[in-house]
Design goal:
Blueprint (H helix, E strand, L loop, with lengths): L6 H13 L13 H9 L3 E6 L2 E6 L1 H9 L12 H18 L3 H12 L15 E2 L2 E2 H12 L7 E3 H7 L5 H13 L3 E4 L9 H6 L1 E3 L2 E3 L1 E4 L2
Antiparallel strand pairs: 1-2, 3-4, 5-9, 6-9, 7-8
């Protein structure tokens, strides 16, 4: 597709997509006639006569464009709350239906953000061994045992350390950081201070001055 919506057009497309609105032309103040015509000419919107008013509708082409351009720049000159609020509502519904915790969703997104989903240095290519076998594989198996076999489930580092007491702390910490670098897990802070116990604090890994108390292991 050669046509590239400008930031204001992009904002309007996302607003229509996330809210499901099919507004009257007169109600869409953010879209001036020039921008509206350009979107229509590109096949991203169409106008439908309803009574005495014309309504703006998204096309299948607009949905296909949005799928590939969720990171497109949107206007900072106009209100974005309609689109943002609608997106959050749909995200909430999706996470509830799929029974995915928000933190797990964010962890998976961080993993996916790595090039090709993983870094160049894959854990299975690293020859780090402990007396009981490959340390990376041990960590993975323990994490899945703690999560009932499910990926992207919150695991406290204090619980992981209890399951692997024979590995020196600095070796285990290094392996966890390697796995995070490789996009195999994400270390995160336990935000709620009421959830953090002295054991959580003692088991935490310091990453650039920030404590990480929990991890999410990818599938």
């Amino acid at each position: 597709m050669s046509f590239k919506p400008n930031p204001m057009q992009t904002l309007v497309l996302f607003r229509l997509l996330f809210t499901g609105e099919e507004p009257k032309i007169s109600d869409m103040k953010q879209l001036n006639p020039k921008n509206r015509k350009a979107l229509a000419d590109a096949g991203l919107i169409e106008l439908e006569k309803r009574g005495r008013a014309q309504h703006i509708l998204l096309t299948d082409k607009a949905w296909a464009w949005a799928q590939e351009n969720l990171d497109a720049e949107i206007s900072r000159q106009a209100r974005t709350n309609e689109a943002f609020e609608a997106l959050l509502l749909r995200l909430k519904q999706f996470l509830k239906i799929k029974e995915i915790p928000l933190a797990g969703f964010m962890a998976a997104a961080q993993m996916a953000a790595a090039p090709n989903g993983k870094s160049d240095a894959q854990p299975d290519q690293v020859q780090m061994q402990d007396p009981n076998g490959d340390l990376y594989e041990r960590i993975r198996k323990i994490c899945f045992a703690l999560s009932d076999g499910k990926p992207n489930v919150r695991i406290r580092l204090k619980d992981l350390r209890k399951q692997i007491p024979d590995v020196p702390r600095d070796v285990l910490d290094g392996a966890l950081l390697d796995l995070q670098k490789a996009g195999r897990l994400v270390l995160m802070h336990l935000d709620d201070p009421q959830e953090r116990t002295p054991e959580d604090e003692a088991a935490a890994i310091d990453v650039l001055g920030f404590k990480r108390h929990i991890l999410y292991m990818e599938g």
